[in-house]
Design brief:
By secondary structure, the protein is mainly α. 66% of the residues lie in helices and 0% in strands. This is Fungal-specific transcription factor domain-containing protein.
Protein backbone atom coordinates (compact mmCIF):
# COMPACT_ATOMS: atom_id res chain seq x y z
CA UNK A 1 0.00 0.00 0.00
CA UNK A 2 2.88 2.34 0.79
CA UNK A 3 4.39 1.82 -2.66
CA UNK A 4 1.02 2.49 -4.28
CA UNK A 5 0.56 5.81 -2.45
CA UNK A 6 4.07 7.16 -3.04
CA UNK A 7 4.77 5.77 -6.50
CA UNK A 8 2.22 3.74 -8.46
CA UNK A 9 -0.56 6.33 -8.28
CA UNK A 10 1.72 9.01 -9.73
CA UNK A 11 2.40 6.93 -12.85
CA UNK A 12 -1.21 6.68 -13.99
CA UNK A 13 -1.65 10.28 -15.16
CA UNK A 14 0.18 13.57 -15.56
CA UNK A 15 -2.90 15.52 -14.46
CA UNK A 16 -2.86 16.42 -10.78
CA UNK A 17 -6.63 16.16 -10.27
CA UNK A 18 -6.58 12.60 -11.62
CA UNK A 19 -3.49 11.73 -9.59
CA UNK A 20 -5.33 12.95 -6.49
CA UNK A 21 -8.17 10.53 -7.19
CA UNK A 22 -5.77 7.60 -7.54
CA UNK A 23 -3.61 8.63 -4.57
CA UNK A 24 -6.24 9.74 -2.05
CA UNK A 25 -9.86 9.15 -2.98
CA UNK A 26 -9.71 5.54 -4.18
CA UNK A 27 -7.74 4.34 -1.11
CA UNK A 28 -10.32 6.10 1.11
CA UNK A 29 -13.13 4.13 -0.54
CA UNK A 30 -11.06 0.94 -0.32
CA UNK A 31 -11.04 1.02 3.48
CA UNK A 32 -14.74 0.14 3.32
CA UNK A 33 -14.51 -2.35 0.45
CA UNK A 34 -12.02 -5.19 0.75
CA UNK A 35 -12.25 -6.15 -2.93
CA UNK A 36 -11.09 -2.65 -3.91
CA UNK A 37 -8.18 -2.89 -1.47
CA UNK A 38 -7.15 -6.13 -3.18
CA UNK A 39 -7.30 -4.29 -6.50
CA UNK A 40 -4.99 -1.55 -5.22
CA UNK A 41 -2.52 -4.07 -3.79
CA UNK A 42 -2.61 -6.01 -7.05
CA UNK A 43 -1.77 -2.98 -9.17
CA UNK A 44 0.93 -1.91 -6.72
CA UNK A 45 2.55 -5.36 -6.83
CA UNK A 46 2.39 -5.33 -10.62
CA UNK A 47 4.16 -1.96 -10.68
CA UNK A 48 6.81 -3.33 -8.31
CA UNK A 49 7.38 -6.24 -10.70
CA UNK A 50 8.09 -3.61 -13.35
CA UNK A 51 10.45 -1.40 -11.32
CA UNK A 52 12.20 -4.31 -9.57
CA UNK A 53 12.88 -6.83 -12.36
CA UNK A 54 15.08 -8.92 -10.05
CA UNK A 55 11.90 -9.78 -8.09
CA UNK A 56 9.58 -9.80 -11.09
CA UNK A 57 8.22 -13.31 -10.56
CA UNK A 58 7.55 -12.75 -6.85
CA UNK A 59 5.62 -9.52 -7.34
CA UNK A 60 3.74 -10.80 -10.39
CA UNK A 61 2.52 -13.79 -8.38
CA UNK A 62 1.42 -11.48 -5.58
CA UNK A 63 -0.36 -9.22 -8.06
CA UNK A 64 -2.25 -12.11 -9.63
CA UNK A 65 -3.23 -13.42 -6.20
CA UNK A 66 -4.72 -10.12 -5.03
CA UNK A 67 -6.52 -9.56 -8.34
CA UNK A 68 -8.12 -13.00 -8.19
CA UNK A 69 -9.41 -12.28 -4.67
CA UNK A 70 -10.71 -8.86 -5.68
CA UNK A 71 -12.41 -10.09 -8.84
CA UNK A 72 -14.28 -12.82 -7.00
CA UNK A 73 -16.13 -10.35 -4.78
CA UNK A 74 -16.33 -7.62 -7.44
CA UNK A 75 -18.21 -9.85 -9.89
CA UNK A 76 -20.73 -10.79 -7.21
CA UNK A 77 -21.42 -7.20 -6.14
CA UNK A 78 -21.48 -5.95 -9.75
CA UNK A 79 -24.67 -7.97 -10.33
CA UNK A 80 -26.53 -5.56 -8.03
CA UNK A 81 -24.93 -2.11 -8.18
CA UNK A 82 -26.40 0.56 -5.92
CA UNK A 83 -25.96 4.27 -5.32
CA UNK A 84 -23.87 3.30 -2.30
CA UNK A 85 -21.47 0.75 -3.81
CA UNK A 86 -21.22 2.19 -7.34
CA UNK A 87 -18.16 4.27 -6.41
CA UNK A 88 -16.19 1.24 -5.23
CA UNK A 89 -17.32 -0.74 -8.28
CA UNK A 90 -16.28 2.05 -10.63
CA UNK A 91 -12.91 2.45 -8.90
CA UNK A 92 -12.23 -1.29 -9.17
CA UNK A 93 -13.33 -1.28 -12.82
CA UNK A 94 -10.82 1.49 -13.47
CA UNK A 95 -8.10 -0.47 -11.67
CA UNK A 96 -8.79 -3.68 -13.57
CA UNK A 97 -8.62 -1.90 -16.93
CA UNK A 98 -5.20 -0.54 -16.05
CA UNK A 99 -4.08 -3.88 -14.62
CA UNK A 100 -5.06 -6.02 -17.60
CA UNK A 101 -3.09 -3.74 -19.93
CA UNK A 102 -0.04 -3.84 -17.68
CA UNK A 103 0.10 -7.60 -17.13
CA UNK A 104 3.06 -8.91 -19.15
CA UNK A 105 1.64 -10.33 -22.37
CA UNK A 106 4.59 -12.68 -22.73
CA UNK A 107 4.11 -14.45 -19.41
CA UNK A 108 3.62 -18.22 -19.58
CA UNK A 109 -0.09 -17.98 -18.81
CA UNK A 110 -0.90 -15.03 -21.05
CA UNK A 111 -0.98 -14.42 -24.79
CA UNK A 112 -1.48 -10.91 -26.20
CA UNK A 113 -4.63 -11.72 -28.16
CA UNK A 114 -6.34 -13.63 -25.35
CA UNK A 115 -5.27 -10.87 -22.98
CA UNK A 116 -6.85 -8.15 -25.12
CA UNK A 117 -10.06 -10.19 -25.41
CA UNK A 118 -10.15 -10.32 -21.62
CA UNK A 119 -9.49 -6.58 -21.53
CA UNK A 120 -12.45 -5.91 -23.84
CA UNK A 121 -14.74 -8.06 -21.71
CA UNK A 122 -13.59 -6.43 -18.47
CA UNK A 123 -13.86 -2.93 -19.93
CA UNK A 124 -17.42 -3.62 -21.02
CA UNK A 125 -18.25 -4.58 -17.45
CA UNK A 126 -18.22 -0.89 -16.60
CA UNK A 127 -21.33 -0.40 -18.76
CA UNK A 128 -23.28 -2.04 -15.92
CA UNK A 129 -22.69 1.20 -14.02
CA UNK A 130 -23.88 3.58 -16.75
CA UNK A 131 -27.01 4.62 -14.86
CA UNK A 132 -24.78 5.76 -11.98
CA UNK A 133 -22.38 7.80 -14.13
CA UNK A 134 -24.10 11.16 -13.35
CA UNK A 135 -23.65 10.36 -9.65
CA UNK A 136 -20.03 9.24 -10.12
CA UNK A 137 -19.27 12.29 -12.25
CA UNK A 138 -20.31 14.60 -9.40
CA UNK A 139 -18.32 12.63 -6.83
CA UNK A 140 -14.64 12.64 -5.86
CA UNK A 141 -14.08 10.16 -8.72
CA UNK A 142 -15.39 12.63 -11.28
CA UNK A 143 -11.99 13.51 -12.81
CA UNK A 144 -11.63 9.90 -14.01
CA UNK A 145 -14.56 10.32 -16.40
CA UNK A 146 -14.25 14.03 -17.16
CA UNK A 147 -14.26 14.64 -20.91
CA UNK A 148 -10.82 15.71 -22.10
CA UNK A 149 -11.52 16.31 -25.78
CA UNK A 150 -13.44 18.47 -28.19
CA UNK A 151 -15.67 16.94 -30.84
CA UNK A 152 -14.12 17.70 -34.24
CA UNK A 153 -15.05 15.30 -36.99
CA UNK A 154 -13.36 15.02 -40.36
CA UNK A 155 -10.09 16.75 -39.44
CA UNK A 156 -6.75 15.16 -40.43
CA UNK A 157 -5.24 12.68 -37.97
CA UNK A 158 -1.69 13.83 -37.22
CA UNK A 159 -1.11 11.25 -34.49
CA UNK A 160 -2.48 8.50 -36.71
CA UNK A 161 -1.01 9.53 -40.04
CA UNK A 162 -2.29 7.36 -42.88
CA UNK A 163 -4.98 5.66 -40.81
CA UNK A 164 -7.76 7.55 -42.60
CA UNK A 165 -6.78 5.99 -45.92
CA UNK A 166 -6.56 2.52 -44.43
CA UNK A 167 -10.01 2.83 -42.87
CA UNK A 168 -11.44 4.00 -46.21
CA UNK A 169 -9.98 0.92 -47.88
CA UNK A 170 -11.39 -1.30 -45.16
CA UNK A 171 -14.83 0.25 -45.59
CA UNK A 172 -14.70 -0.42 -49.33
CA UNK A 173 -13.57 -3.99 -48.83
CA UNK A 174 -16.23 -4.54 -46.18
CA UNK A 175 -18.92 -3.26 -48.56
CA UNK A 176 -18.05 -5.81 -51.27
CA UNK A 177 -17.26 -8.75 -48.99
CA UNK A 178 -19.85 -11.51 -48.69
CA UNK A 179 -20.83 -11.40 -45.02
CA UNK A 180 -23.90 -11.94 -42.88
CA UNK A 181 -25.69 -8.62 -42.34
CA UNK A 182 -25.30 -8.76 -38.55
CA UNK A 183 -21.57 -9.38 -38.90
CA UNK A 184 -21.25 -6.49 -41.36
CA UNK A 185 -23.20 -4.19 -39.04
CA UNK A 186 -20.98 -5.07 -36.06
CA UNK A 187 -17.82 -4.38 -38.09
CA UNK A 188 -19.15 -1.10 -39.53
CA UNK A 189 -20.03 0.06 -36.02
CA UNK A 190 -16.54 -0.86 -34.77
CA UNK A 191 -14.93 1.10 -37.63
CA UNK A 192 -17.05 4.18 -36.92
CA UNK A 193 -16.27 4.07 -33.20
CA UNK A 194 -12.56 3.57 -33.88
CA UNK A 195 -12.56 6.73 -36.00
CA UNK A 196 -14.37 8.64 -33.26
CA UNK A 197 -11.93 7.58 -30.55
CA UNK A 198 -8.94 8.45 -32.74
CA UNK A 199 -10.43 11.92 -33.27
CA UNK A 200 -10.99 12.31 -29.54
CA UNK A 201 -7.38 11.39 -28.79
CA UNK A 202 -6.24 13.72 -31.58
CA UNK A 203 -8.11 16.64 -30.02
CA UNK A 204 -7.53 15.83 -26.35
CA UNK A 205 -6.29 18.80 -24.38
CA UNK A 206 -3.42 16.70 -23.12
CA UNK A 207 -1.95 13.36 -24.11
CA UNK A 208 -1.70 12.47 -20.45
CA UNK A 209 -5.24 11.13 -20.75
CA UNK A 210 -4.15 7.53 -21.32
CA UNK A 211 -7.53 6.35 -20.08
CA UNK A 212 -8.88 7.23 -23.51
CA UNK A 213 -7.47 3.97 -24.88
CA UNK A 214 -10.24 2.15 -23.00
CA UNK A 215 -13.10 3.94 -24.78
CA UNK A 216 -13.13 1.80 -27.93
CA UNK A 217 -13.15 -1.54 -26.04
CA UNK A 218 -16.11 -0.23 -24.03
CA UNK A 219 -18.23 1.03 -26.94
CA UNK A 220 -17.82 -1.80 -29.48
CA UNK A 221 -20.63 -4.32 -29.56
CA UNK A 222 -20.39 -7.68 -27.84
CA UNK A 223 -20.50 -9.33 -31.25
CA UNK A 224 -17.22 -7.69 -32.18
CA UNK A 225 -15.45 -9.42 -29.29
CA UNK A 226 -16.84 -12.71 -30.59
CA UNK A 227 -15.39 -11.93 -34.02
CA UNK A 228 -11.97 -11.37 -32.45
CA UNK A 229 -12.27 -14.71 -30.68
CA UNK A 230 -13.09 -16.32 -34.04
CA UNK A 231 -10.04 -14.59 -35.61
CA UNK A 232 -12.31 -12.93 -38.18
CA UNK A 233 -9.95 -11.11 -40.61
CA UNK A 234 -11.68 -7.70 -40.53
CA UNK A 235 -11.89 -7.80 -36.74
CA UNK A 236 -8.17 -8.61 -36.52
CA UNK A 237 -7.32 -5.71 -38.82
CA UNK A 238 -9.40 -3.31 -36.74
CA UNK A 239 -7.63 -4.61 -33.65
CA UNK A 240 -4.33 -3.93 -35.41
CA UNK A 241 -5.50 -0.38 -36.13
CA UNK A 242 -6.39 -0.04 -32.44
CA UNK A 243 -2.72 -0.73 -31.69
CA UNK A 244 -2.00 2.77 -33.01
CA UNK A 245 -3.91 4.16 -30.02
CA UNK A 246 -1.93 2.00 -27.61
CA UNK A 247 1.26 3.19 -29.32
CA UNK A 248 0.37 6.86 -28.78
CA UNK A 249 0.39 6.30 -25.01
CA UNK A 250 3.42 3.99 -24.91
CA UNK A 251 5.30 6.26 -22.48
CA UNK A 252 3.01 5.02 -19.70
CA UNK A 253 4.45 1.83 -18.22
CA UNK A 254 1.09 0.07 -18.33
CA UNK A 255 0.98 0.44 -22.12
CA UNK A 256 4.69 0.50 -22.92
CA UNK A 257 4.92 -2.76 -24.90
CA UNK A 258 1.25 -3.59 -25.34
CA UNK A 259 0.94 -2.40 -28.95
CA UNK A 260 4.09 -4.20 -30.06
CA UNK A 261 3.21 -7.55 -28.47
CA UNK A 262 -0.40 -7.49 -29.64
CA UNK A 263 0.49 -6.50 -33.18
CA UNK A 264 3.10 -9.26 -33.37
CA UNK A 265 0.51 -11.89 -32.51
CA UNK A 266 -2.05 -10.45 -34.93
CA UNK A 267 0.61 -10.56 -37.64
CA UNK A 268 1.64 -14.11 -36.78
CA UNK A 269 -1.84 -15.61 -36.49
CA UNK A 270 -3.93 -13.20 -38.52
CA UNK A 271 -1.96 -12.94 -41.74
CA UNK A 272 -2.07 -16.71 -42.19
CA UNK A 273 -5.86 -16.67 -41.95
CA UNK A 274 -6.15 -13.63 -44.19
CA UNK A 275 -3.98 -15.23 -46.86
CA UNK A 276 -5.98 -18.44 -46.61
CA UNK A 277 -9.20 -16.49 -47.21
CA UNK A 278 -7.74 -14.38 -50.00
CA UNK A 279 -8.21 -10.98 -48.31
CA UNK A 280 -5.08 -9.33 -49.72
CA UNK A 281 -6.29 -5.76 -49.21
CA UNK A 282 -6.92 -6.56 -45.55
CA UNK A 283 -3.36 -7.87 -45.24
CA UNK A 284 -2.09 -4.56 -46.64
CA UNK A 285 -3.82 -2.74 -43.77
CA UNK A 286 -1.97 -4.86 -41.19
CA UNK A 287 1.31 -4.16 -43.00
CA UNK A 288 0.54 -0.41 -42.74
CA UNK A 289 0.05 -0.61 -38.96
Amino acid sequence: MHHYCISTCTTLSDQEDIRHVWRTEIPKIAYSYEFLMHGILSLSALHLSYVKPEKHSHYLTSSTFHMALGLQTFRTILRKPTAENCFALFAFSSLIMVWICAVPADSKDTQPLSSVIEMFNLCRGITTLLEFFPLINKSCLGPLIARDWSEKRGTPLRLFHGLDDQISRLRYRLAVEVLAEEERSVLEHAITELEKTCQRIEHARTLSASGMVYIWPIVVRVGFISLIEQRQPFALVLLACYCTQLHVFRRFWVLERRAESLLSEIWRDGVFLIQARGNSSVKVSIVYV
